[in-house]
Amino acid sequence: xxxxxxxxxxxxxxxxxxxxxxxxxxxxxxxxxxxxxxxxxxxxxxxxxxxxxxxxxxxxxxxxxxxxxxxxxxxxxxxxxxxxxxxxxxxxxxxxxxxxxxxxxxxxxxxxxxxxxxxxxxxxxxxxxxxxxxxxxxxxxxxxxxxxxxxxxxxxxxxxxxxxxxxxxxxxxxxxxxxxxxxxxxxxxxxxxxxxxxxxxxxxxxxxxxxxxxxxxxxxxxxxxxxxxxxxxxxxxxxxxxxxxxxxxxxxxxxxxxx
Amino acid sequence: xxxxxxxxxxxxxxxxxxxxxxxxxxxxxxxxxxxxxxxxxxxxxxxxxxxxxxxxxxxxxxxxxxxxxxxxxxxxxxxxxxxxxxxxxxxxxxxxxxxxxxxxxxxxxxxxxxxxxxxxx
Lengths: 259, 121
Known about the structure:
The structure holds two protein chains of two kinds.
Chain A: H1 18-23, H2 25-33, E1 41-42, E2 46-47, H3 49-56, H4 60-69, E3 77-79, H5 81-90, E4 100-102, H6 113-126, E5 131-135, H7 139-151, E6 154-162, H8 170-181, E7 185-190, H9 195-206, E8 209-210, H10 216-220, H11 224-227, E9 244-246, E10 255-257
Parallel strand pairs in A: 5-6, 5-8, 6-7
Antiparallel strand pairs in A: 1-2, 3-4, 9-10
Helix pairs in contact in A: 6-7, 7-8
Chain B: H1 3-12, E1 13-14, E2 19-27, H2 38-41, E3 45-53, E4 57-58, E5 62-66, E6 72-80, H3 93-107
Antiparallel strand pairs in B: 1-4, 2-3, 2-6, 3-5, 5-6
């Protein structure tokens, strides 16, 4: 190895300034995820989301097969008897639904994000990428690291974690530890929008796959959550749920839906 | 070197092959993204990353490490075998008693609350 191979120091042939890297954004994204997002742009502000998912996605059956390979999904559905009883005591007579929780912490890496990472990492492996990169400070990073370990790919997780005194946000520090225990390289940054800039630089430097949460593969992986409401391992029968509320304990607001 | 001496030297330096953490400035304040707020622009964008050090060095020296992914990265040596640490902050007073209140409610004879409902949890 020569000094020219060392990542830091800006000795490479390409301009690594913020503006220059951001200007190469489309080209880097195309090389790292294999999707030309411009093809799905419709005019100045519209985007053909359905078209993109159709052309680049996997069917639900394929996703289930991919997820079985790394033990993702088919999580237990648990009846919360105490909470159900409490709600009934506080509700008018005849009201108060049975409340069930789908225990997504039973996924490998401990969150539903394994569903999303599973398809990205599978796709990266299928296309022959040597590794995957995700810019994420939470459960998704751990999920990508865990899936990459199982599929034998290298993994880099870029986190936005420290303040200017070098004090790290506790949950993010903990996720960094998890990622390292799965064998990922964890690049820890101070806060700022340049997280994305560093992510692009790493994609360009390594030629790894962009395992972003927001590619069609990351999005498609979560669709099985709705499909596998019962846990066949426990012999539960598929039950009809009337109302579904997603509360994923990942800092987002609850999302509800009628099944 | 005796074991104790070896431990002492690791506080001030690393030997080739040790697991270490390095620090580097990715963007100086004047190189940062144009959209960053004023207070963020006053500080650099910093990076910390861990890997196996490629040569003996003292804390504070410029070194090269090899990361888990196999990249060679240059930076200033800041820690040898860096410790994982954080804590979970102060307890939340409202949450300390809530379990006992609900258990009392569950153990009482129904209906514990008039059926107009909606007092809410």
